[in-house]
Amino acid sequence: MNSCTAIPSTLKGSHFSKPKHGRFAASLLAVIMLLPALTAWSQSLGNAGTIRGSVTDQTGAIVAGARVTVRNPITGYSQETASGPDGAFQLSNLPPNPYHLEIKVEGFAPFSQDVSIRSALPVQVTAKLEVAGSSTTVQVEAAGADLIEVDPSAHTDVNRNQLEKLPSADPAGGLSRAITYSTGGVAADANGFFHPLGDHAQVSFVIDGQPISDQQSKVFSTQLPVSAVQSMELDTGSSNAEFGDKTSLVAQITTRSGLGAKHMFGNVDSSFGSFGTAVGSIGFGLGNDGMGNFLAIDGSRSGRFLDTPEFRPLHDIGNNQTVFDRADFQLSPNDIFHLNLFAARNWIQIPNSLDQIGQDQRQKVVTWSVAPGYQHTFNANTLLTINPYVRKDQFEYFPSGNVFADTPISSGQNRHLFNYGVKSDVSHQMHRQTLKVGIDLKQTRLFEEFHFGITDPGFNAICVDAAGNPAGPAAVLNPAGCAALGFTANPGLLPGLTPFDLTRGGSQFQFRSRHNINQYAVYAQDSISAGNFVFNVGLRGDLYRGLVAASGLEPRAGVAYNVKKTGTVLRAAFSRTFETPFNENLLLSNATGSGGLAKNVFGASGVSPLEPGRRNQFNVGLQQSISRWAIVDLDYFWKYTRNAYDFSTLLNSTITFPIAWNKSKLDGFTGRVSSTNLKGFQAYWTFGHTRARYFPPESGGLISVQPPGPFRIDHDQVLQSTVNLRYQRPKNAEWIDLSWRYDSGLVVSGVPDVAAALNLTAAQQAAIGFSCDGRAATLANAITSCNGVGRSTLLTLPQTGTEDNDHNPDRVKPRNVFDVGFGTDNLFHREGRKRWVASAQIVNVTNKVAVYNFLSTFSGTHFLQPRSVTGRLGFTF
Fold first, then answer.
1. Mean pLDDT for the chain?
2. Does residue 66 have a pLDDT over 80?
3. CA 581 to CA 282: how far, in whole Å?
4. DSSP readout, 127-194?
5. I need a labelling partner for 425 at 20 to 30 A (CA). Which of 130, 155, 510, 674 fits?
6. Which of 207, 525, 204, 210 has its CA nearest to residue 387?
């Protein structure tokens, strides 16, 4: 084994031994116990903010019962409360955004002020009301100023108003779809995957302060239901120093809360639609100024649960159940405790293709999480936040009962990701500065079991005939014996796989291993306001102790300039980031490199374990308000990464393995145009362009992929765009929502040109609409030679000899997909909070036939969802 690697002390044959973790656990426990001792027990509201204030008249006398409201004109988020007997008021759980605050009470002139929430530090407001009819001082910025955010990092804000109306028919994948349709920097992929700014799954979720960097697609980890989400801030620019691990997109999610509600609220919904889809949802919340609780229970069943390798779903029934509960306790004016509980389960049939019609493979994913938290306000300028958490994902993959029903291999897996940790920081505001210093400590315990056996004698043939087709009897195990039979030894033979060829008397390969990944991070960041400038500077230090030992020092810096006269914000930022390896199947993927499994069983080319990547990222952009009607946001990014990560897929299963490339160069732009609410009409347009160039060699994975030079990976897409138009009549009545999604097409790695298409099966050729000189492939007749022009209705398919991995790769053809939803939030036009709601939606209205990708080494084959119609009836209170 190479002496420069860090694996030898933990590798034993095909195992990784379990390292000692007592030191990490002891240090983590000490931190958790020490920090709360600084005050009383309590909690954190994650990235949400608070507005506190008092209402008096000009003489200083208390004004009770004043109605206090805040509203963001772009997201539509609003919250209302009333001043108490002492004139005080508090608005909690506010998503980071600029807001327009208004205070009204009979006998006084209205008071208004623009307030910006950018941290969890409470914002103090003192409102002195003028007597009605007298001169009034209204503290409002110039026209359009309450639309823009003077922030050096590009981001998109999404509120529950948008999430509720967005047409969607993706069981257990609503959160991923909402992210994909809300930001232009995201290219859509199958099964809830998306590629943020040219990367695969380099996403961190921060849910009420709990950091999650493991994958949240429904085939990896059952994600938070949309019904539990109040708002999201989707950061696609250079990230602040508090964020690490995966930073291409940071989704800061604020969940729904009952704190301050002062009445019971909730919903009971049921939906039924195409493919036997049924969905049920129950939400219930209640609370007052001292406590609050919100519970969301969701379940779904569908005959098209996953995206399928055929346009028509075959063997694709799945169901999903989630339970989310959030409890908040305002222990004192300065202390708040919070607890998130989450449990979820997916049980899924793995879809079949026409070439694998007899398979009965299935998958189960179980996720649970316990995330308490605490927030203590020392004074108006200093805030302590503590977020410990425990979380587990368990993934099980089951082969068919008869292994030979699976083709070309039969495989199974059982793997666990168990992580626990604490994220804590102290924020301090000093005049024009907001300083945050914190820690992020966690341990992830990995356990992996995997087995497979070859069930197709042609998958890794020993001999081939003159045409290159598999040949010879199963008794031949040595390529040297091919010549005596009149055949040729298979030049692509992987000798290490032969012992696991069940058609040749072999046995199944078995792998079982466990290991712990320890990560320690400290960070400091400072936001400085200086006139029209805002500067963000920060420094993060990461220590990674897993299969390798690595560390990173990561400076971050950004600047934004507010041109107040024109309603413009100009920004630029730089970040150095430390990109950690994916944890899913990390142990087996590392074992396949040089010095790992005997004889490099899978043909992987890694010569060292997968190490963290180092990235330099630059962003420049602007934000422009158009009067008080709309806002435009544009951002350009450039990212250079050493040791760039991706995934390889085991054939057309949901079993994937992390791989690393020597380097990557990513650049492109993102944009969004958003309108305010114009008499019930609201719209947005997101768009993005990404060039994703990767450079071999590859390390890790199971089956080696080694392009000869730079290539465009399947994250590369020239243009993606979403237009969303929504209109709702006053008083929460009838509404209609239309989405138009355009994708120019991801790169296709599995079928680079016409010559490769000739090697496809008849069913595969028919699926992509392959033809040569007008002669089309059918399920009964494949095209095996093409001396003319080969074409595909779904792929661009370069002619033989014209394909270029970097400059002319095969791509999915461009597509336009339209979705529409319509309904009412007050079916019987009743007054009050208790209302019946009803809606209908049609996804893929034109029944567009298209694929996300086809035979991709990185994602397999998946068709877009056919036209689906869903009806919903519910009751809200």
1. 88
2. yes
3. 37
4. EEEPBTTS----B--STTTTT----SS-EEEEEHHHHHHS----TT-HHHHHHHHH-TTEEE-GGG-E
5. 155
6. 210
